[in-house]
Amino acid sequence: MLDYLKYTLSPLLLLVSAYGLWSGGNHVWLGGGVLLGILLFDAFLAPDHSLRDSRYPWLYDSIVCIQLTLAFGLILLYAWLIGSGHFTTVAQQTGAFITMLITQFVLATPALHEMFHRENTFLRWFGRLGMVMIFDPWREITHVVTHHVHTVTPTDPDYARRGENLYRHLLHTFREQIIESYQLEKRLWTKRGRPWWHPRNAWVWRAGLLLGFVVLLHLIGGWSGAVAGVAVCLLGPRTFLEIFNYCQHYGLVTGKPGRFENHQTWNHLTPFVRILALEITNHAGHHQDGYKPFYELVPDRDGPKQPQFLVCVLLACVPPLWFMMIRPLLRDWDRRYASPQEREIAAAENIRAGWADLNDEPEPAQRRHAVAA
Questions:
Q1: How far apart, in whole angstroms, are the C-alpha atoms of residue 264 and residue 252?
Q2: Of 74, 147, 176, 241, whose CB has the highest number of CB atoms within 10 Å?
Q3: How far apart are CA 350 and CA 331, in angstroms?
Q4: What are phi and psi of 267, to 5 degrees?
Q5: Who's near 62: CB < 8 A, 6+ residues apart?
Q6: How far is the C-alpha of 59 from the C-alpha of 322, rounded, in Å?
Q7: What does the pLDDT average to over 208-237?
Q8: Residue 254, Cα to own-chain centre: how many angstroms?
Q9: Of the candidates 180, 172, 20, 46, which has an alpha carbon nearest to the alpha carbon of residue 102?
């Protein structure tokens, strides 16, 4: 039963965040502060390779449904509090906004991602509805159709190549995702002989969901509440989701495009990150089967790993620090995990990125250490 109780942590943190916002004053920092404290503590813990008890899948699904419902409730509560002038000082407004950025990314995004990957009709549509909270109802199109098929290739908008810093990646990925989702949808409505505005076209009803969400925010919190809510969605879960994608496959390559192998993603397997992210940082298993529920994923003990997830996100925001961390990991990946063909591709990528020194052969002692590890 403990395995099931672990995943109630996210709903509880959403309730803590709601209480802090409702209470006002310095309490507005409560949800974000507790969440960051847990993640900082998690950074000092050893990886967790345990399997989850999956005898009662309905219990896990119920918890995630509650989590996504509470995430919806939190953004609506925030819009109402903003519209009613609940936060009377700049410090309160800032604290509430930062708390919303953190909680909506860490606690809402994993739930909606888990849902829209499901085969169950209700769960999938609940996840699709939840995509308005990342202000990108088209995300499922590029994620499932493109990202999961073209992982670690330049045709994947979510992929960051070697030498690419976070800010260049953000500009690239936002632009390419819009273009990619439009092109994929255009092929469908053209093939089916529909005009672009036909309500059965996915982009039309998805745009309707997004418009309905903004209207709801406005009805609850007025223009100020709607603007604040949209800002949270764009600067919180939407942007931080791209930072997550930047970290998750950074610089890895494949010799078999369209065929995912476990060593083509970085894993983050510390205990609380696994729980809060609904196992999405247990990333190899997710890519092996995108329809497999989070509680059935098997941690990849021997796959490539990065430091704890929060550490990676913070380092990514400072490119020189990110490159200091990731370059040795990529050198190790090239030598320990890559196939001969992938080593050739990686060597070319290193040259393109201006990292030709990563292609230097290690000293014998270094080579022995890599083999032993």
A1: 6
A2: 74
A3: 10
A4: -115, 150
A5: none
A6: 39
A7: 96
A8: 22
A9: 20
Taking the model in full, what pTM does it have?
Answer: 0.91
The mean pLDDT value of the chain amounts to 92
Res 181 pLDDT > 90: no
Task: Give the end-to-end CA distance of the chain in Å, rounded to a whole number.
Answer: 35
pLDDT in tens, 318-362: 999 999 999 999 999 999 999 999 999 999 999 999 999 999 755
pLDDT 10s digits, 54-90: 999 999 999 999 999 999 999 999 999 999 999 999 9
φ/ψ of residue 305, rounded to 5 = -130, 150
Spatial distance between the Cα atoms of 56 and 49, rounded to a whole number of angstroms: 20
Contact 322, 330 (CB under 8 A): no
Q: What tokens does 268 get?
A: 């983050």
> What single string gives the DSSP state of each residue in 205-267?
HHHHHHHHHHHHHHHHHHHHHHHHHHHHHIIIIIHHHHHHHHHHTTT---SSTT---GGGS-B
